[in-house]
Amino acid sequence: MRFKWALLTDLYQLTMVGGYVQAGKKDQVANFDYFFRRIPDEGGYCVLAGLADLIEYIKDLRFERDDLEYLDSLNIFPGNFLQYLEKYRFSGDLWAVPEGTVVFPHEPLVRVAGPLPEAQLIETILLNIMNYQTLIATKGARMRWAAQGDPVVDFGLRRAHGPDGALMASRAAYIGGVDATSNVLAGRLYGIPVRGTHAHSWVESFSDELEAFRAYAKVYPEACLLLVDTYDTLRSGVPNAIKVWRELKEEGHKPLGIRLDSGDLAYLSKEARRMLDEAGFREAKIVASSDLDEWLVESLKRQGAKIDIWGIGTRLATSYSCPALGGVYKLTALDKDGRGMTPKIKRSDNPEKITNPGVKKVVRIYDQRGQMRGDVLFLDGEPLPKGSSFKAFHPMFSHMVKTYPGEFTMREVLVPVFKQGKLVYRSPSMHEIRKTTLKNLEELDDAYKRLHNPHKYHVSLSASLFKTKQDLLHQALSNNSRTSFSQGGYRG
How far is Cα 438 from Cα 176, in angstroms, rounded to an integer? Predict the structure, then answer.
């Protein structure tokens, strides 16, 4: 997707950037972290998605003449600020977790360092892209988990949040592990396999169901998958499908299967499977749709439903049960007078909203079996304790300490994407990203993937980062600062 919308931002981003320019902060270097605080649906993990679209936006971010004329018409901004925007190009550094990586709360997923106005300006679109696609990729991964290896198809286009939302949803769902989509444009743009059949309107447009099935089979003899619940699934739909398939078989064609879109899917699929098998069509697939989500899929599997392929629509493309990922973009360090980056912290009465200060790296810990055992945030210049055991601290509660043994291995998760404004990262293909997701999920124990009461994955702080955080909190309390720290009564 190509982004040409420089004005797709919140007004306060522009007023802040204008203020930075007027206040002489145009060249002051800042570090921002993008992270989320809670996993949707009380789940055990998220799957990161959206980085490729974010890269395209930053590469193409330009303020055209008509953009500047509109801003000028608002009578808010000083003229020199509009001149600044006219020449705007991102010149900073950006590090990110690759798409398809399994991620967890409170760890920086995108790290932006550069001139304060430049780093500030990309906040809104970064949150818009990364929050939504990560949400849907996570939902796709949960659907795949619930289906226990059965193919899952994205049917969400018609209920998605607009055309752009539909494309992002199809892209993200595929990253999460969904196998195909009904969205033809997503298939063309991203190389996602496309799948589909016909609607009830096809059947209703003929004088009877059998005529409708015969007409469809005549046009698509090698891709005959029939929707059998328009009138009566077991007394009409499945028997008529069998009649048409017998005719196809005599002509040397092999039917694909049937789709169920209503009713008791457990009962209907079992009966339909029995009828198809008895008729000699054991290889015919049964596709199910009808407002499915991961909990319904899991329940149907537990009931022994004879469903081979799952079509998931509304509840995937809209993340119906949890419509937003609460990702945030927070300033964590600031250069003062060219003397290097000073850690900054946001304090709150809510411990979950206290930020982790400084420029940080994310280190993933693996055991001898290659399984993920926890993530630890280190200060960027801090050496890693390779080959020796070390203690890591809970981000919010000082009494909770975890010791990692020396035989565990470590891998830094953040990778460079932009260096001094130049793109240094090659975005993988969609198929490569999807493979990353599946590999990451294999490395994550099933206890974190279950839909109900999953085990909590540990994201900890190194001893140095923990001390830095505590020192800043104590300083905030003692100084009652009104500049770098939020006050005790602040609820933001």
Answer: 8
Handedness of CA 421, 426, 429, 433 (dihedral sign): negative
Q: Distance between CA 33 and CA 31 in Å, rounded? A: 7
pTM comes to 0.94
Within-domain flag for 39 = yes
Whole-number Å distance between alpha carbons of 436 and 418: 21
CB distance 417 to 51 below 8 Å? yes
Q: Strand pairing of 372-379 and 459-461?
A: parallel
Which two three-digit tokens encode residue 455? 């085990």
Residue 371 maps to which CATH number? Answer: 3.20.140.10
Closest CA to 314 of 154, 490, 102, 465: 154
Query: What range defines the domain where residue 33 resides?
Result: 11-136+323-479
In a domain, 250, yes or no: yes
Q: In the structure encoding, which two tokens stand for residue 451, read together?
A: 């839909």
Structure tokens at 347: 């304090």
Residue type, 209: E
Are 455 and 328 in contact, with CB atoms under 8 Å apart?
no
In a domain? residue 149: no
Domain boundary among 245, 278, 311: 278
Same domain as 328, residue 466? yes
Angle of the 238-250 helix axis to the 265-278 helix axis, nearest 10: 30
Give the H or E element holding residue 147: helix 123-147
pLDDT tens digits, residue range 87-141?
999 999 999 999 999 999 999 999 999 999 999 999 999 999 999 999 999 999 9
Q: Are 317 and 156 in contact (CB under 8 A)?
A: yes
Q: Domain count for the chain, please give it.
A: 2
Summarised one tens digit per residue, pLDDT across range 286-331 is 999 999 999 999 999 999 999 999 999 999 999 999 999 999 999 9
Task: For residue 157, count CB atoms less than 10 angstroms from its CB and return exposed for 0-12, middle for 13-18, buried for 19 or more.
Answer: buried
Query: Look-up: residue for tokens 């993933």?
Result: 364
Q: How are strands ordered across the β-sheet holding 401-404?
A: 401-404, 390-393, 459-461, 372-379, 360-366, 409-412
Q: Do 132 and 247 fall within a single domain?
A: no
Q: Is residue 268 part of a domain?
A: yes
Query: Pairing relation of β-strands 415-419 and 93-96?
Result: antiparallel
